[in-house]
Amino acid sequence: MKATFQIPDDLYREVKAETARDGLTVREVAISLFEQWLRQKKQPLPHASSIDWENFRAPLSHLVPTEMTDHSTEAMQKSIDSHWNEPA
Questions:
Q1: What's the confidence (pLDDT) of residue 17?
Q2: N vs C: which end of the chain shows fewer Cβ within 10 Å?
Q3: What is the domain count for the chain?
């Protein structure tokens, strides 16, 4: 099937020069890119591991006392800074 579409002149000139250097045609590169794009679309997305939110602990939670009531950014930063060198 023949398809016609417009691309920016500068892009076409650069693609044309690169394909010529590689001994390819723009058509061959375009077909290869379309095939690559389709293969990529068909690949399953990597599965993210599920998080047990009921038992989740923030990575730095051991640096913030459980009795802390001021949860402002400044207070949290101060608590983390003061407990930074303590063992987990």
A1: 97
A2: N
A3: 2
